[in-house]
């Protein structure tokens, strides 16, 4: 299968007074069309940096990102982004926030068609009733729903998700994962998601890319997740392979949290806190489904 | 609940009453005495006594100024009008100068906030010009606009150097809060909002009116409110120096005429109008902050 998105030798280097700080280096990843890939790693390992380079919001220091045969040089609406915070403009209603993007992408379409697109996606994410409210009147979960609707409404070539559910409570997170996976299945958009939640990565992805710890982070290991789709959370969790895959991910994260990095000319950043993200092993996650 | 309402109405009155009482104590009171003059005749002499003998007391002030208050729009002469007629003249001038200040100040603020280079070039100049008093700007305005003269058919000057100088002074002095607050507001726009504009590839014009301006509005309105306060402050100085009819011009003329009651009336009017303007602007400001 041809590669739809290709990250080759991608690097991010920041110049500092003490020399160059290498955040990411030699990052190679090939993603097929319609695939859902998660990037997992510890906080600060550079996974969000990789994502924002693909988004075009962060300058690429070395290597290239090629999407559908074209090199990415800057941001653009061909990549729908769901940020960690929903990033809605607070002076516009949910509908207007979605319309802002729709107007930009489908500027040739008639006004009524554009309205229909925005209304369609907002209804799918469950906001039919409250699409004319301002973000201030919506809950955190509803705002993120608007963020998802906005990304999908652009009919992007690529969907980029930067810890999209990181700020939500567990129950809302489960609901929104369901919303996301259903929309993704309908639209078959290639997706790249950054997360530090092991269960989220397993539930949503076709492949999970584990990143080594920064500085100079790179691809550590890639895990194929072959649960049948469409997926049900309960079925996934009861799948005989589930705990083996989960163990694999957690072991990788644990090992790399303790491993001292070599080959770097700057002192390693102080590694923060516990080796495993606490929410990833919270006991409630097992029974909540 | 009732008590707080009661307090918020009654307590300000206590303050006002206290001030009026102090005023009354300080003010001079007329004392009439019967004395024998050098020729041995009995004459009635009225003299003023008190800490500030020439200052009229509250009741005296009322008696002397009631004509101006009770017939607020009467025009007896160019510099002898009802107090609201004067206020209206002053407000008209303030409105013009204030509009110029906003029209010039807001774009400058945007440029300062958006461009680091622009900010580095002009920030020192702004910091130097900002503290210059209106009294200093006015003569410069007179020189700058000395050739301005717009007359009507009959030869009456409609808009002369004095008017231009007054407008210039108001605009220059009132501009700074708008400039600085807008610049701060633009710099404070969250990166998130700018990312949205970048990702959607909004054009410059669209980014400006869909993202930058709405995100800066709360700051801009704080600037607008402060600017209006300064514009009203400057008007009095401008009118005093130019002798234009208005609250400030009236005040200066009455000082020259040694009519102190009218000065007090002017001061109170200026204060009340300034207070009302500030309230109105803060209502508008709050509407934009609520978003």
Structural commentary:
The complex is a heterodimer of chains A (289) and B (291). Chain A has 289 residues and is an alpha/beta fold. Chain A has helices spanning 47-55, 94-105, 111-124, 140-153, 170-187, 198-204, 233-238, 242-258, 284-287, and strands at 3-16, 19-32, 36-40, 62-67, 70-71, 79-82, 158-162, 190-195, 207-211, 219-224. Chain A folds into two domains: 3-76 and 160-172 and 188-287, P-loop containing nucleotide triphosphate hydrolases (Rossmann fold); 79-155, no CATH class. Chain A is built from nine helices and ten strands. In chain A, the strands form two sheets. Chain A has a six-stranded mixed beta sheet, with helices on both faces. Chain B is mainly alpha-helical. Chain B has one domain (75-290): Orthogonal Bundle (MetI-like fold), CATH 1.10.3720.10. Chain B is 73% helix and 10% strand. At the A-B interface, helix 2 of A face helix 7 and helix 8 of B.
Question: How is the secondary structure organized here?
Answer:
The complex is a heterodimer of chains A (289) and B (291).
Chain A: E1 3-16, E2 19-32, E3 36-40, H1 47-55, E4 62-67, E5 70-71, E6 79-82, H2 94-105, H3 111-124, H4 140-153, E7 158-162, H5 170-187, E8 190-195, H6 198-204, E9 207-211, E10 219-224, H7 233-238, H8 242-258, H9 284-287
Parallel strand pairs in A: 3-8, 3-9, 6-7, 7-8
Antiparallel strand pairs in A: 1-2, 1-4, 4-5, 9-10
Chain B: H1 2-26, E1 29-36, E2 42-49, H2 58-70, E3 75-77, E4 80-81, H3 83-114, H4 116-129, H5 134-144, E5 149-151, E6 157-160, H6 161-187, H7 191-199, H8 204-242, H9 247-256, H10 260-290
Antiparallel strand pairs in B: 1-2, 3-4, 5-6
Helix pairs in contact in B: 2-10, 3-4, 3-6, 3-8, 5-6, 6-8, 8-9, 8-10, 9-10
| Overall number of strands of chain B | 6
Instruction: Please name the fourth-level CATH homologous superfamily of the largest domain in chain A.
Output: P-loop containing nucleotide triphosphate hydrolases
Point out poorly predicted stretches of chain B: none
Residues in helices of chain A, as a percent range: 25-40%
Largest interface, with counts of residues having CB < 8 Å to the other chain, equals:
A-B, 20 and 15 residues
CATH fold field value of chain B = MetI-like fold
């Amino acid at each position: 299968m041809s590669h739809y998105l290709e990250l080759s030798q991608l690097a991010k280097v920041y110049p500092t007074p003490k020399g160059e700080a290498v955040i990411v280096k030699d990052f190679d990843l090939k993603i097929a069309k319609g695939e859902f890939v998660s990037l997992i790693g510890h906080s600060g390992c550079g996974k969000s940096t990789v994502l924002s380079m693909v988004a075009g919001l962060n300058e690429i220091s070395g290597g290239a990102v090629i999407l559908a045969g074209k090199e990415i040089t800057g941001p653009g609406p061909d990549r729908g982004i769901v940020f960690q915070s929903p990033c809605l403009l607070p002076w516009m209603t949910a509908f207007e926030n979605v319309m802002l993007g729709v107007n930009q992408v489908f500027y040739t379409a008639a006004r009524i068609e554009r309205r229909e697109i925005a209304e369609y996606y907002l209804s799918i994410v469950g906001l039919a009733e409250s699409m004319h409210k301002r973000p201030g009147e919506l809950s955190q979960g509803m705002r993120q729903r608007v963020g998802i609707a906005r990304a999908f409404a652009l009919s992007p070539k690529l969907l980029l998700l930067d810890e999209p559910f990181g700020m939500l409570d567990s129950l809302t997170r489960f609901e929104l994962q369901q919303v996301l996976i259903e929309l993704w299945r309908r639209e078959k958009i290639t997706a790249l998601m950054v997360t530090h939640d092991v269960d989220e990565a397993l539930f949503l992805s076709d492949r999970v890319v584990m990143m080594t710890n920064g500085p100079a982070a790179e691809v550590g290991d890639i895990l194929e997740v072959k649960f049948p789709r469409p997926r049900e959370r309960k079925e996934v969790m009861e799948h005989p392979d589930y705990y083996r895959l989960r163990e694999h991910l957690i072991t990788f994260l644990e090992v790399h949290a303790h491993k001292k990095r070599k080959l770097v000319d700057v002192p390693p950043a102080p590694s923060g806190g516990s080796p495993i993200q606490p929410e990833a092993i919270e006991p409630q996650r097992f029974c909540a489904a | 609940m009732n008590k707080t309402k009661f307090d918020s109405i009654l307590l300000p009155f206590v303050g006002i009453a206290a001030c009026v009482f102090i005023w009354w104590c300080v003010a001079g009171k007329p004392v009439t005495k019967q004395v024998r003059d050098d020729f041995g005749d009995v004459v009635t002499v009225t003299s003023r006594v008190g800490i500030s003998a020439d200052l009229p007391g509250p009741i005296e002030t009322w008696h002397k100024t009631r004509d101006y208050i009770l017939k607020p729009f009467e025009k007896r002469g160019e510099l002898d009008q009802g107090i609201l007629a004067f206020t209206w003249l002053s407000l008209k001038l303030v409105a013009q100068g204030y509009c110029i200040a906003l029209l010039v100040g807001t774009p400058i603020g945007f440029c300062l906030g958006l461009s680091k280079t622009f900010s580095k070039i002009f920030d020192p100049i702004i910091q130097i010009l900002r503290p210059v008093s209106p009294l200093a700007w006015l003569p410069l305005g007179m020189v700058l606009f000395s050739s301005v003269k717009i007359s009507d058919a009959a030869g009456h000057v409609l808009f002369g150097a004095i008017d231009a100088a007054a407008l210039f002074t108001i605009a220059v002095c009132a501009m700074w809060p708008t400039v600085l607050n807008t610049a701060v507001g633009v710099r404070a726009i969250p990166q998130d909002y700018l990312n949205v504009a970048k990702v959607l590839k909004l054009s410059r014009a669209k980014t400006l009116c869909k993202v930058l301006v709405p995100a800066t509005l709360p700051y801009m309105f704080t600037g607008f409110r402060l600017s209006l306060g300064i514009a009203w402050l400057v008007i009095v100085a401008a009118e005093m120096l130019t002798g234009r009819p208005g609250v400030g011009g009236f005040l200066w003329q009455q000082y020259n005429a040694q009519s102190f009651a009218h000065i007090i009336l002017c001061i109170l009017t200026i204060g009340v109008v300034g207070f009302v303007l500030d309230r109105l602007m803060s209502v508008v400001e709050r509407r934009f902050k609520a978003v």
